[in-house]
Amino acid sequence: MEESESKRIKLESSPRGISELDVGITCYVCSEVPGFKGSLKQRYTDFLVNEIEKDGNVVHLIDLGVEDKKDRRREKREKEREVKPPPELGDFRSKLEELVGAEVVDKCLELFHTGTKYETEQAFEDKALRTQIHQLFGEAFQGRLDTSTTADKRLIVRLQTRSTRSRVPKSEAGNVLEFLRFTVYKENKETMEVTGLIARFLRIQPKAITFAGTKDRRGVTCQKFSIRRMNVARVSSLNSTLRGVKLGSFQYMSEPIRLGDLNGNQFVISVRNIDNVENVDAALKNLRDNGFINYFGLQRFGTFSVSTHTVGKSILKGDYDAAVTSILQPQELTLPESREAREIYANTKDAAKALELMPRKCMAEYQILTALKESPSSINALLRVPHNLRLMYVHSYQSYVWNCAASERVRRGLEVVPGDLVLDEAESTFTRARPVTAQEIEQKSKTIFDIVLPTPGFDVTYPENLVNFYETIMNEDGIDCHNMRRNTTEFSLSGSYRLLMSRPSDLTWWHKTYTETDEQLVRTDLELLELGKPITPENRLAETVAGERNAVILQMTLGTSEYATMALREAMKTDTSRHGQMFFS
């Protein structure tokens, strides 16, 4: 382990942007293993992210929704007798065979040639299993087969027809499945931006669209959305309108997707311009075997010169004037169109004049200035900021404190010691933590990968061996870690627990040489769909001309709220900030 600096430096605003040191990221797990230099996110296709659902299914773009009715009518006579080949099942085949058996899968594939229906001999008594089968059939066969259940719990499978397409979707119990769930593939766009676009075209409120988690802009990502009481064809038709966004795998469900309904993300990352290739294998093996510190990455703290945790600190102190000033102050790293408005407000405090020049896309700033134009109350202005942004400020302060505590804990060693906390497995209703026992330490039944640290809040237990550290660091900011309730309910923080360390699962990598600087190194889900190729690691790798430039393509799975940049930081031993060497600029 290694600490990059021996002391913490607090910067309210930096012309170079937020640094790792500013937000408590200071240590490595294995400093003795050398890293390697390379560039990340030179192209947005260098960073592929696929959400993993609660059942372990990796979300991919495997179809582009339902066909347009006009197209179907136009082509009906020409293709009336033409039988479309069955879809490529790819990885779905093994999952289907596990649930229903190979014979049933083969019989279902025959339906695309015979056009008849098929009824299984086997009965499926377990309702949860039947639900899983129906969902998997919908995804694997791209909605082209209808499944239903007989009274004696056997499965009936038939080719989809116009009449079955028009039926109101219902569950086995006869209840209407009112939530439309679908896959969202996006290129170089933020999740909130996409929800806004879809909402605008459908003429609904963005909050009517739900998802399990947000995905970064700079990348190609796949995730699930859900909308209540929405027609499939209406949403699917957006594929011809949206740019950089594709929708598919539509199905009706009885429940919406809720925030947190995921098991993590699968990443395919291209690291370019590697100049010390000889270090790559050892560095990635070290990451695979020894893991990384589960820091909150710099994305958690915003992209401007002022970190969001600085705003959160002011809010938690009750200094709302300072919070508003931090959000509105002139900054180097901010949207250029907003700079004049920021300067005007900083120099004159004329909210009305500044509002005239503030772009609407600067959502927090625009809403604050709108409120200040009506009334000088800073707290009222903050409460005009969209709910998710308000929470982001205070949550990022929690993340900052957690990062600092994690660095302090790693500095003390990677062995489990008295005072460390682990999750209480006996507690099923709420997530609780308990001190590790002397027996667990002696028998080594708990490792550093079991240790959790709390984000500060009123409903967490602080570790006995670090509680003084929490108290000291937060007292320096004028905040009491034992008093996290506030008069404004949403600023009252209950806290949560986060694993100190993590290891990526299924980490594999491939070396690649290429010639052109901006040459695409991997294929996206959309490109593979258009090529008619199944999504496999081999098909992911794009054909390139062998050249003098070196790259490594790595695939790994991380848990919920774990940052790929923090895993790469451990492997590469490279600064992940905007002025660091990892990111292409």
Structural class: alpha+beta
Strand content: 15-25%
**Rg estimate, integer Å:** 26 Å
Largest sheet, in brief, is: 9 strands, mixed
Count of alpha and pi helical runs: 20
Overall 3D geometry? Answer: globular
- Residue-averaged pLDDT: 87
Task: Tell me about this structure.
With 585 residues, the chain is an alpha+beta fold. Among the domains are: 37-49 and 264-294 and 502-585, no CATH class; 54-76 and 178-262, Alpha-Beta Plaits, CATH 3.30.70; 84-167, 2-Layer Sandwich (Ribosomal Protein S8, Chain: A, domain 1), CATH 3.30.1370; 306-388, Hypothetical Protein Yqey, Chain: A, domain1. The protein is built from 20 helices and 20 strands. The strands form five sheets. Strands 3, 4, 8, 9, 10, 11, 12, 19 and 20 form a nine-stranded mixed beta sheet that branches. A four-stranded antiparallel beta sheet has the order 15-14-16-17, covered by helices on one side. Strands 5-7-6 form a three-stranded antiparallel beta sheet, with helices on one face. The longest helix has 25 residues, at 387-411. 37% of the residues are buried. Mean pLDDT is 87; it is low at 2-15 and 77-82. It holds the Pfam family TruD. It comes from Wickerhamiella sorbophila.
